Amino acid sequence: MLRRIICSAPAAALAIIFLAASSAWAGMAPGMGQPTPGQMGLQGAASPVAAQIQTFYDFVNIIIVAIAVFVLLLMLYVMYRFNERSNPNPSRTAHNTVLEVAWTVIPILILVAIAIPSFRLLNLQYSYPKADITIKATGYTWYWGHAYPDLGDFSFETRMLDDAAREELIAENIDAPRNLAVDNEVVVPVNKVVNVLVTADPDGVIHNWTIPSFGSKVDAVPGRVTTTWFKPTVEGIFYGQCSELCGKDHAFMPIGVRVVNEETFAAWSEAMQAANTAGKDARGEKDKTKRREKLREKKQLIEKAKQIIREAALQQSGNRKLAEVNAVGTQ
């Protein structure tokens, strides 16, 4: 946080130069969507809630640092001024009305100053705007299931990629961080309100659906439905992990949310809906030949949807790498 405050002015000036030099800078900045080596503070904010969380985080840390410095200086002064050598005849004063009022009132004022933005943040988090898209996230042992009830109720499972699958993506210049990359990403359009209904397998355990850059973190409880919302303001890939100790593979339950433009999302969701329809038709088809044809159609449509996201990922990976190069130049 301190480094960000100290370096904010020169970094902002250099960022303006790079913005003028390249439109690709509008993509994800380093430290956004996933942790990075040497990172200080929170992951970059990519939603209004996350942005306000970071503002509140910085504000409270300034107060904490100020109190810590004040107490340290006060202790040093007391040790210097009132040690036995400097003050051989100590005062017998037991009370000081002004001082006692001050050390009661000042902490109250500090707590009020913290409470006001805290309540505003809570109100923002739990005042759900009208959703453009609703997603249902279900925690299993140990993977996630995601469904789009407003878009034909198509669904898919999200599991962590192994090293071999990651290497294939990396060879194609697509980011695939260890223990975070997933086989099926949640896809949402940029600048749209997304409502996430979160639950867990009725026969399972408690999980937690978390995306730090969106400021979203909510428990997935068996037999109950909790909810969170976010409005992504930046295109790119944003990772999270199960944040509730849930068993032996707790550390291997990542979540990947791919934010794309509206045209890409429309094409992807259309292909997924068509694949879901083909799957339903196949289940109700008694003729084996027609059933195989429907299943083949479903597979082709799913591959089409994956190809759409793969192309978006390639473009976003290029923008991210350029942003990282520009960021290095500002340091």
Chain-wise SSE layout:
Elements (H helix, E strand, L loop, with lengths): L1 H20 L26 H34 L15 H30 L6 E8 L2 E6 L5 E5 L4 H9 L14 E4 L4 E7 L6 E5 L4 E5 L5 E5 L5 E6 L12 E7 L1 H23 L3 H43 L1
Parallel strand pairs: 1-5, 4-10
Antiparallel strand pairs: 1-2, 2-3, 5-8, 6-7, 9-10
| Count of alpha/pi helices | 6
Structural class: alpha+beta
Largest sheet: 5 strands, mixed
- The SSE order reads HHHEEEHEEEEEEEHH
Just give the CATH class of the largest domain: Mainly Beta
Order of strands in the sheet with most strands = 3-2-1-5-8
CATH-defined topology of the largest domain = Immunoglobulin-like
- Give the tally of β-strands: 10
Percent strand equals 15-25%
Average pLDDT figure = 87
Q: What is the total domain count?
A: 2
Q: What would you call the shape?
A: elongated
Low-confidence stretches: 1-26
**Span between termini:** 16 Å
Overview of the molecule:
Strand 2 and strand 3 form a beta hairpin. It is built from 6 helices and 10 strands; from the N terminus they run H-H-H-E-E-E-H-E-E-E-E-E-E-E-H-H. It folds into 2 domains: 104 residues, Helix Hairpins; 191 residues, Immunoglobulin-like (Sandwich). The strands form 3 sheets. A 5-stranded mixed β-sheet has the order 3-2-1-5-8. By secondary structure, the protein is an alpha+beta fold. The longest helix has 43 residues. The N terminus is likely disordered.
